[in-house]
Amino acid sequence: MEDLLGAGAIIAELGSQGVGPLSPEAAAARACFTQTSDVSAAVAACSSGIELTRSGFADDVAVATELDASTIVPVLTDGAFSHSANAAPQPNL
C-alpha cells in the first residue's frame, strides 16, 4: 500500500509538470493516490502501518506520508547515498 501510494504521489507530481504519457501501471498508481482522501490514514491502517505502530513507530508512519517534506532526492552511487549524482560517495564506516 505505502509503495503504491508513494509511487502515485511522485507520478501525480510529475504529471502536473507535464511529464507523460503514463503507462497503465503509472496511471493506476496515480489514480490510487489522487483518489485516496487521507493517505496518512490509509497507510496507518494497512498491514505495514499497523505493524510499525504496534512496534512503537507510529511517528515514522506519519513522517513517511508527508508531502513535499524534502527538496533533495538521494542518489545511490557505489553503495552510498549522496545528494546528487556528482557528489563523491561517503566512505563506509
Description:
The chain has 93 residues and is mostly helical. Helix content is 52%, strand content 6%. It has helices spanning 2-16, 24-34, 39-45, 47-54, 58-64, and strands at residues 75-77, 80-82. Strands 1-2 form a two-stranded antiparallel sheet.
Distance between the termini: 33 Å
Radius of gyration: 16 Å
Characterize the biggest β-sheet. Answer: 2 strands, antiparallel
Measured by DSSP, the beta-strand proportion falls in 5-15%
- What strand line-up does the widest sheet have? 1-2
Mean pLDDT: 88
Helicity, in percent?
Answer: 40-55%
Count of helical stretches: 5
N-to-C SSE series? HHHHHEE
Low-confidence region ranges: 89-93
How would you summarize what this structure contains?
A two-stranded antiparallel sheet has the order 1-2. Helix 1 (2-16) crosses helix 2 (24-34) and helix 4 (47-54) packs across helix 5 (58-64). It has helices spanning 2-16, 24-34, 39-45, 47-54, 58-64, and strands at residues 75-77, 80-82.
